[in-house]
Amino acid sequence: MDINLRKAAIVGCGYVGASIAFRFLQQGVFSHLVLIDANTAKAEGEAIDLSDGLPYGSAMEITAGGYDDITDCALIVITAGVNQKPGETRLELIDRNAGIMRSIIAEITARDFKGILLVVSNPVDVLTYTAWKLSGYPRERVIGSGTVLDTARFKQLLGRELGVDSRNVHAFIMGEHGDSELAVWSGANVSGLDLDDFCRLQNLSLTAERREGMYQCIRGSADAIIRRKGATYYGIAMAVGRIAACIMKDERSVLPISVVLEGEYGLRGLALSVPSIVGRSGLEQTLEIPLSGDEERSLRTSAEQISAAIKELKL
Q1: Residue 207, number of CB atoms within 10 A of its CB
Q2: Whether the Cβ atoms of residue 263 and residue 227 lie closer than 8 Å to each other
Q3: Bridge-partner residues for 262, per DSSP?
């Protein structure tokens, strides 16, 4: 069956999956969205609720369905899994969510699916690698949301600190989507103007202490939200919407998605978030950007943690 470039599915209709569906409704990128959940009634309820807003949104069909409905999808977003609890790291979710991922991938590969898998469930780097390994699909077609949200948090904080529109701030969070992630300060800029040069022009001072404080704020953002409202979902929905638009519109934009590495940065045998060109094929190309010595060491430390977690799964 041919791929329908305007059809997508979301597996998992919890807070994150439902928020992503709402974002897709706003964007108008898809004409048909299928919602799949182990709790069929939940998927049906979300589909009905979302469909009620169609007269004020995009022209599309939103239905609850099953895996037989994914065959011609261009994109499947996987959000199913156990949520992170207050004080719990993303890596502590591995055993529970890896089992769920195994069952989902088994259902998908049993169909003639030729589209792209976008993994959002945490720990996203480990589960992206798991989905790639179990599916047998080329790495271009199995990507994770990675540190796209973390990068948005970085840009938003920098924009506030510098007094400029965060959309004019260009910077990356790389590595694990989790506690070992790293902020790439060496490449940060404001519309092409080096961060340090911009600070000098504005008589600003981003001290090492201030930078560390910002990094800790980014790193602890999810836990801070979870402690206050129980879960994070709006930010990741916006991030996934951005990734989906890049794929469906073949934008070839640069985003720090989680990808299976094949020697980039001297790393292989794991998935990690690195700046990548995202387009119609999913992963179009990974980019090895210059890093400072400290940043290189931090990336390797992050990779070691993810590699150790993957080995425990014995895939």
Answers
A1: 8
A2: no
A3: 268
Segment holding 192, helix H or strand E: none
Taking the C-alpha atoms of 295, 166, 152 and 206 in order, what is their torsion angle to the nearest 10 degrees? 30
Q: Among 47-51, 91-95, 96-100, name the one with the lowest average pLDDT.
A: 91-95
pLDDT, tens only, 200-235? 999 999 999 999 999 999 999 999 999 999 999 999
**Spatial CA neighbour of 143 closest among 92, 78, 74:** 78
**Rounded CA separation 139/200 (Å):** 42
Determine the Cα–Cα distance for residues 270 and 121; give it in Å rounded to an integer.
16
Separation between Cα atoms, residue 297 and residue 295, nearest integer Å: 5
Peptide bond into 123 cis (omega under 30): yes
Catalytic positions, written as ranges: 177
**What angle (nearest 5°) sits at the alpha carbon of residue 237, between those of residues 107 and 96?**
45
CB 35, CB 59: distance < 8 Å: no
Tokens 């807070």 locate to 15
Q: Residue 10: which of 248, 234, 244 has the closest Cα?
A: 244
What gap in Å lies between CA 168 and CA 154, rounded to an integer? 12
Nearby residues of 123 by Cβ (< 8 Å), 6 or more positions away = 90, 91, 93, 94, 97, 176, 177, 178, 309
Tracing tokens 């439902």 back to the chain, one arrives at 18
What gap in Å lies between CA 300 and CA 38, rounded to an integer? Answer: 37
* 85 pLDDT more than 70: no
Closest to 29 in 3D by CA, of 70, 75, 72, 67: 75
